[in-house]
Amino acid sequence: MTPPSQEPQTSAVVTFENVRIGFDEEDVLRGVSLEVMPRETLVLLGETGTGKTLTLKLAAGLLRPTQGKIEVLGQEVSAMSERELLPYRRQVGFVFQEGALFDSLSVGENVAYQLREDRLGEEEIEQRVQEALHFVELEHTGDMLPSELSGGMRRRVSIARALAARPPIVLYDSPTAGLDPVTAQTIITLILRLRDVFGVTAMLATHRLQDGFALANFRFDPESKRVVRVTEKESSVPATGGDAEPATRFVVYREGRVYFEGGPEELAESKDAYLQRFLV
Amino acid sequence: MAGRSLANLASGPRYFQDILDQMDDIGVGSLPIVLMAGFFIGAVMVLQTGSQFTRFGQTALTGDVVALALVRELGPTLTGILVAGRCSSGIASELGSMVVTEQVDAMRAMGTDPSRKLVTPRVLAGVLMLPLLTALNDFIGLLGGCVASVFTLRLNAVEFWTRAINALDFADVMQGMMKPLVYGFILATVGCYKGLTVRGGTQGVGRATTQAVVVASVMIIAADLFLTRLSLYLGDKIF
């Protein structure tokens, strides 16, 4: 995994400018503008069908906006051809809602997939696969098929697959949807570790507010190797990259537009009736 | 999609292992049904034509007719339809399931072009394997015809084979080998197209699978008309 840059970066890693996309003549995203700073985690909240997954797929270059501009890692994704997008996508990790593991390949082959595409040596691939599976605590599943794993384990393998290629940015599409609370907590802890150990910038789409607050209020301490609560001092440091503590910011969608944008405290203290629906 | 699948061969990355896997699946996997069908069709041809030739006392011509019918027409077209039934459906359901479970999106998200990884190997395997399957189908069909003619028409096996082989011109063999190239291309591209454009979850996969077989089979029969006309024209002009 790429270590956090030593020089403070102040420019956004992801920028959406007035992005619109729709299907069947109806816009789902109706002019979304947002920014994600280095090492920041942007939590996208919203009801089903408000465009959270679309936002992630747009950022990954899997879809093209009908209007607006998208820049990721300094590249204008919205203006790239499909051929140019292929190498770009290798810099972005994507964790799909149901894992989207290749069901005809073993767990190890799934994790190694992108590494083989990148034509790395077999020894390095083996080492990275073991590292990634060790990170998600599934070293013993390398030879198993995805169908032999539980839903939670499949999500963990999906995270391992995304991190094996060491991308500087990871997009999580509802990683805890449909999981029991204990397994969901395991997945959130993994996302925390990925952020705090490797300094990954992330966008996370979810309809579970508690996932966002868990990311905002806890951090992984590499020394004690435990998840600890974020102190007031740490949470007040803005996310400007470099040595700054990773910050968590929330964007709430309503009817294809950004309805709320801010930190966890602002969201928690909001008296807005729509936002209250997520807080209850 | 059809054009791109072949244009992909001009530049890398090329997925040789996937091409071999697909050749194994389409070629070796289809061998049992193609050979069984070929044997019985050859035998039935002899029974049907033999009963007519018996009326004129010309049963010796059976070998000629069976060879021409099998090599020019029945061998390629039957092989095409049989492999379309087996492989177009298989390709459509496999790729369709990958689409609905977001595996194709996952592939794209990891920087892989699905057209190179999924479509090109299948189309190439179809184009390469169909002529070989057809050649084997023709041979086994003639074998079936020989067995039937020996047991029902009391023909000599050597005479049957000699007449069958002598009846065939180079133009007949060319016609019989040109058609499966096109059929292989049709059945693989239709299967890939139907699979990759699936809409509507598992129900959509089922629909795409059925459509793939129907469309590929009808296209093969329609293409047969034009290819036969073209082959006859070329046969007259060139050979």
Topology:
The complex is a heterodimer of chains A (280) and B (239).
Chain A: E1 14-23, E2 26-36, E3 41-45, H1 52-59, E4 67-72, E5 75-76, H2 82-89, E6 92-95, H3 107-117, H4 122-135, H5 151-164, E7 169-173, H6 181-198, E8 201-206, H7 209-217, E9 218-221, E10 226-229, H8 232-235, E11 248-254, E12 257-262, H9 264-269, H10 273-279
Parallel strand pairs in A: 3-8, 3-11, 6-7, 7-8
Antiparallel strand pairs in A: 1-2, 1-4, 4-5, 9-10, 11-12
Helix pairs in contact in A: 3-4, 3-5, 4-5, 5-6
Chain B: H1 2-7, H2 16-56, H3 62-100, H4 103-109, H5 114-152, H6 157-167, H7 170-196, H8 201-237
Helix pairs in contact in B: 2-3, 2-5, 3-5, 3-6, 3-7, 3-8, 5-6, 5-7, 7-8
| Number of DSSP-assigned strands of chain B | 0
Class by SSE composition of chain A:
alpha/beta
Order of strands, main sheet of chain A, comes to: 6-7-8-3-11-12
Query: Termini of chain A, distance in Å?
Result: 37 Å
Global geometry of chain A: globular
Strand count, sense and barrel status of the largest sheet of chain A are: 6 strands, mixed
Q: Could you estimate the helical fraction of the residues of chain B in percent?
A: over 70%
Query: Tell me, what's the shape of chain B?
Result: elongated
Largest sheet of chain B: none
Radius of gyration of chain B: 20 Å
Order of helices and strands of chain A, N to C?
EEEHEEHEHHHEHEHEEHEEHH
Classify the beta-strand content of chain A into a percent band. Answer: 25-35%
Summarize the structure in words.
Chain A has 280 residues and is α/β, with parallel strands linked by helices. Chain A is 35% helix and 25% strand. Chain A is globular, with a radius of gyration of 18 Å. Chain A contains 10 helices and 12 strands. In chain A, the strands form 3 sheets. A 6-stranded mixed beta sheet of chain A has the order 6-7-8-3-11-12, with helices on both faces. Chain B has one domain. Chain B is 87% helix and 0% strand. In chain B, helix 3 packs antiparallel against helix 5 and helix 3 packs parallel to helix 7. Chain B is built from 8 helices and no strands.
